Each structure stands twice: as C-alpha cells, then as structure tokens.
Amino acid sequence: MKIRQRHYARTTHHGGFSLIEFMVAMVLGIIVIAGAVSVYLASTRSLTEVDQVAGISENGQFALQLISYSAKHVGFFGGVYHEDIVKDGSLNTSITNDCTGDAAAYNTGESLMAMTVGADNLAYGCITDARENTDVLVIKNVIPAPIAADPNDSTGNTFPSGEIDVKTTYLVANSEAGMLVDGADSMPSIGTGTSYALANAWPYNVEVYYIRDSAIPTLSRMVLTWDGSGMAMQRQDLVQGVEDMRFLFGFDTGVDGTADAVAADPNDVGSSGWDQATSMQAYILMRAENDDYDYTNEKTYTLGDRTVTPNDTFRRVLLHADITLRNPRIVLRGGAS
C-alpha cells in the first residue's frame, strides 16, 4: 500500500499599524510630550521665581541689618552728652564733599536726621545722585572700639603708642567732656585732674544712607573717611536692588523716654525735634536686578504712609523693621533735652 505524503505550504502573515492607528499614536505622543514640556517649563518658572524672591529677600535683610545696626548706635558718644562736645583747636574742619548745615560731619548738635529727596536728586549738600521720592538718613556716633590710657604710662596721661590712627578722627571723651581730635594731632591729656581724666579715644563715625539713582537702584552711604590727603565724605555702594526706602520716627514729646508721636514726613520735622526721636520704622522695597517678561507686577506696596504700584515686569519684596533708638531714649529719660 502506497502512502501519499502531502506537503502543506506555510503562509506567513506580516501585521502592522494602519494609517489611522499611526496618527492616533502620534497624537497621543505629542500630548504626552507637550504635557512633559509644560510641567518642565512651569517647574523652571517656579524655580526662577523662588530663586529671585529668595535672593531679593536675602539682600533686603542685609540692607535692613546695616541700617538697623547703625540706627541702634545713633547718638552714642562714649558717655558724654552731645552738647558737651567741643572741637580741638587743631582739628581740620575742611572736609572734602562735606554735608551742610546740621548734617555737617563735625556738627554734633544733631546725631540723627532724615529727609525725602526731591526732583533735583540732591540731599544735604553732599549727595547729588539720590533717587527721587526716597528717604535719606543721617547717623552720627562713635564706633564702640575705644582706646584706653596706656597701662605702661605711670602718669596715665597718654594713649598707647601706635594705636592712634593718624587717618582717623577721634572723640576723646569721659562722662563730663568730649573733644573731636585728628588722629595726626596731639591727644589731650587724660590724666587725673584734667578735663578729660580717664577718657577713652573713640573713632568718630558719620554715615548718610540713601538710594543711588542708577540703572540698578543701589543702597549707598556717604561715610567720613580718609581719602589720601585728608578727611572726606566718600560714597560706598552697599546693596543693589534697593528701589525705595522710607523712614518714620516716633517722638518723645513728653520727654519721658516713651514715644508718643509719629511724624509722617521726615521733612516736617524741625531741627529741634530730632533730639526727641526715640524709635524708627524702616521700610525697604527690593527689586530684582533683571526683569521677567513672563511676569507682570501689578501689586501695591505700602511703605508706612506711602504706597507704590510699579505695574512692570520686575519682582519685588517689601521688608520692614521697627528700631529702638536706645541712646536718645536714655538721654531723654535722664532728663537731658
């Protein structure tokens, strides 16, 4: 019996996507990619905003710390009352770019002053580039790093050799009297029985804080320092991005050491009123150095009694500090006015 073998051909079927399936897959892929890109861009914008705000806040806190530290030492003259301070006969009062009037560097009658800058960008005769409608703050004191009598001098009449800086102005003061002296000149005798017995030599300090009107507004200050040939009021740029600054003061009109009145505008305070200032509110409006075209700032910022609505593309942060003017308060509580 003959057996027939049948051979069956194997047929291979090749599968694939139809045009419709391909298009659906492509659309879904585009949606997924677009979602991922959207999330990435949103995260990037959020990170940029967080970084900008954090940087602005950090700079603002530093600016407030500088002003607060200076303000807390305003009127400190080593224990002597400011009206008992005199000038040494050899003191060179020709200070380059000195401020004028009560703001003059060696005028210790006023240790605190403030004003609002007008359209001319001028302030106190020593500032020509201040930002319009911002406040300027004048502070005078001594640096708390006194030089005491030379312990090796048995008479106690002199200060240690080499510690007096010839490029610094000093206030030689005890609790009864004080004298402004050039470091290059002879110091007064501080021995027993003299007017300046047991006095210390305190480095004298003058600072005028203001906002410099530049492409990036900058917190600057004029300081009393050596310019190579003599004493001068010279500018120091401190913090970029400080756009606006406002100061409000509490005044002790009852002369009991407690603030009971607030001046809304520093320009309204007469020269006699600054002696009664015992507290201060400082407002600083910080602005990012670069604008962000994906952001529109329509916020309104309140700086004490004044409001600002920028309506631009810069991010901003408003900071505020309450500062006690300790030395003027102590003087008023002690009965001096």
UniProtKB/TrEMBL annotation:
PROSITE patterns: PROKAR_NTER_METHYL (PS00409). It comes from the Bacteria. The chain crosses the membrane at residues 20-42. GO terms for biological process: type IV pilus assembly. InterPro entries: N_methyl_site, PilW. Keywords: Membrane, Transmembrane, Transmembrane helix. This is Prepilin-type N-terminal cleavage/methylation domain-containing protein.
